[in-house]
Input
Amino acid sequence: MASFKDLKQRRALNRSMLYANNARALAKFSDASKSAVDEKNADGSTPDSTPPSGGGTTQYPVRAEQPDTNDRSVRMKVCDKIMPADIPSSIRRASSTGISSLEPSDTLPYRLEENEALEVRKTKFAGRGIFWAPQGDELCKKGTTLLRLRPHISVLGQEEVESHCHVCFEPQSHTSRFQRCSACRYVRYCSVNCQKTDWAIHKTECKALQAWQAHANARDPRPDCHTRTLARLIWKRPTEGEKWWNQLDSMQSNRAQKASEQIQSIAGQAYRLCRYIGIGTSSRAEREEIYEEEANRQRLADLGFDSVQQLLDFVCKFETNSFTASSSDLSPCGLAVCPTAALINHSCLPNAVVVFPFGPGDSGHTAGPMRVVAIKDVEPGQEITTAYVDLSDSYTKRRKTLSCTYSFECRCKICKVGSKASSLSGNAPWVDPRDSVWCPKKCGGWCAAPKEEGTGTSTIRCPACGASSTIDPKTLRTTVESAQSKMKEAKEALSALEVDKTITCLRDAVGLLTVQMPPSAYPLLSMLRTACEMFTSIAARIDVLERSKSLVRAQSMATTLADHYLVEATRLAMLVCTGMTVSNGIIFAEGHPTRAIALLTLGKLLISDAVAAFDESEAVDRSILPNPPKLPAVGMPRILMGRNFLLQALEELKIGFGKEKGTSGGDAAKHAQEILQNLDAEMRIFQQSGMAA
Output
């Protein structure tokens, strides 16, 4: 019979697996990853110029049914640090000379080489689009992998540079030693093989990084992710050929539709790119004339650009068509550019998603790491759509993001309803759970929130109880802004290891909004998810620190506190899942990767065997939530609930990341299966030990 020692080991494993996917947040507390870096090449040599050899009515329904990290919008948007007056006059002139001469001129329709059942057609309002067009009347079932793609480029984000391999994107663990280039002291590799793979580009990049650092200042210590991605695309052009480049060139720039402020920002990015790749200098006096100098004009031509306008178009196309490269659990970790995937149009009710089931690294994936997966059944002739924005955002926020970044207005069904609802004063016939507030009569239902830009008092009517009430849009707006400010303070406090201040700020932010709106509402849903991650990180930090201490009593007290934080994270995760699954999945459909990962997180938290450090009444008082959802009893009831959520998560992961033979659901599904196997083994120990009773 299994021993209690085995049981303790399995419980520890459950918790370690819970923390595993939170390593990125945990890294904020520790500099262990930095100390593990060897300042040598992966082969042990010093780098030089030669390559290396060799509306519901229940307030908190909890049933197994994140801001969305699975959107196309670039999450590492760099704030333009170049003031308008600092931008070279030639770029400024080029930014106002009209539409690009390089807009695509494909013969439509045509079938994609990657999947002949997909056809590129011209749409009525959105330019080109991809349609499901099989030879017969075959239905595309949800979970079908529509495209397997290798992006033209994938580049690590700023936050991941010191903790991930620059080629395969593998994160550094406490047991591995990443090695970095001792010349630029920036790029890191997990192996000699990854270094060799990257050398063709890095031998040029290395010099550019050193030149940038030689003239760096506190405001610009390193080139941002956008600049590095653009430069790598340019440096790859000679080796990849013109067909490869023409695919990039065919992407839409939408420059003619962009506002002057957007063009100014793009011009600033173009200048930063020029500075990085060696066109011009950091001197203000010389900067104004850099494109009039023959040497720089020739340098621009050597890189394949006939004019500054072409360079500006290139940057504009990149900004419009870039994807967030994410890990297998949807954590953003960089940028990716893929012209084929960029053909897919947007909908706030998408029938497909763009994912990286095994991470954005290229190693081990013969068909490429990027996948386009159907999350709904698609009829023949139906257009394939994905979401360019966070689906948990309000109608107003989604509309603003699409207009500012992509220069169009969404015409999907949900936005047509939202447009009508936004013109009303809280009396919409259908209540979007993202744009809702609790019924002031406390019946448990929710009402349509008044217009964000509204003034004076508005009358709202609850569809659940029928009662009418008045609400002041300005007061609600002030409450939301205050909560967002407190959430920002909480993040800053967590980075500074100020745990007490972090929790106080979270209470002021999340607690403030949960009184006003349901967990599905914007911006509460994204705040709940962030708060859940922060509490898990705090608990992980306490566990890691106290395991190294020899004082049993201190360790016991700390473990109890860590358990309390995990319980709080569990409550928050329950609200996240509730918010994501309301109204029959109108925000995140069944099988959407963001929803599946949220269910997985909740399941892992429930089985972490956390025991609140205080009795139930005191735990409620200490919670950041005014009315925290009640958890099942510790032990088998909580474990069984966690197991049910894990099973549902596994099924939805197989939809969201693709039902491919042998790799169904990607790494996230594999992770869920491992947890379930360990959990079933633990439950057998419970039964054999007579602990189930």
